[in-house]
Amino acid sequence: xxxxxxxxxxxxxxxxxxxxxxxxxxxxxxxxxxxxxxxxxxxxxxxxxxxxxxxxxxxxxxxxxxxxxxxxxxxxxxxxxxxxxxxxxxxxxxxxxxxxxxxxxxxxxxxxxxxxxxxxxxxxxxxxxxxxxxxxxxxxxxxxxxxxxxxxxxxxxxxxxxxxxxxxxxxxxxxxxxxxxxxxxxxxxxxxxxxxxxxxxxxxxxxxxxxxxxxxxxxxxxxxxxxxxxxxxxxxxxxxxxxxxxxxxxxxxxxxxxxxxxxxxxxxxxxxxxxxxxxxxxxxxxxxxxxxxxxxxxxxxxxxxxxxxxxxxxxxxxxxxxxxxxxxxxxxxxxxxxxxxxxxxxxxxxxxxxxxxxxxxxxxxxxxxxxxxxxxxxxxxxxxxxxxx
Length: 389
Hints:
By secondary structure, this protein is mainly alpha-helical. It has helices at 24-33, 54-66, 71-81, 85-99, 104-109, 117-129, 132-186, 194-229, 231-241, 245-268, 273-280, 289-300, 305-311, 317-329, 332-388; strands at 2-10, 13-21, 37-43.
């Protein structure tokens, strides 16, 4: 869906509105069907575009539904109180579908860029049971837990990135400013040792080709950033990083947390196991698609979920026991949520242990490189002072 700025005439009056559509032609046709004369349709400026507040929308919708309003009345109330053009366009699109007799899940499915398939299927399953507020609350809780997980992983990666960035700036300052100044001290001296000759050579290189070196560094950093954005490079880099046992363990725990939490959410809405497993495919990386397909095949063949997940190494012994207990008691959705919480705690401990070990090692590595450059600078001075004494 794209936001368009539309200028049109309604009853002889010129009006300007923002609306969402998949193309300018569809936006124009929507207004023409309402009897308006469309003068111009242009994509909205990038600076005006705002992300759709999905979490806030669900929170307000749940509050209105709990107050006793039906779904159409609740969305009408949200539309009446909204002032954001994008939000108004989304609510208008939902209301139009509801007025035409579609269910809320079908109206959301018509806007796939705004409403994820997981939410659509959660709403769809609740429409059959009549527990829409509870389903939306479960999805909201799921999103909150996933957001906590994402923030936890980002915070773990933030410290190493900052340390490496600061270390790179300090190293660049030493190589680009300090070493050339030291080179002026050794220029003209005889019987220089290896480190002094290197400082002198580097200083002359910076003096003669400083701008070229700066441009080369800038081009190298830009190329590195572009490479890291390439999905193929990311997959190769991820495979290399996952050779480390600690990182491989954290990656596996992260996948299992998302898998069991998503599976539990769908099962709580009354969705069959096979359909729920099919939908969880979208949240799993490609490396696990083959395992999940085997799980689906085995479950469709009549094998129990606990056994097939254990066979495909997608469940620990503790998780297998919990799944078996859920299958016997009919509380499989609850057990999936408990397994996700169990993996969540294990991931928290793994991240904490990784931070305690990796962060000091990274500090030692960056500090060692900077210290080596500083030592290289002062070694000739120490030798010169020793010779004078």
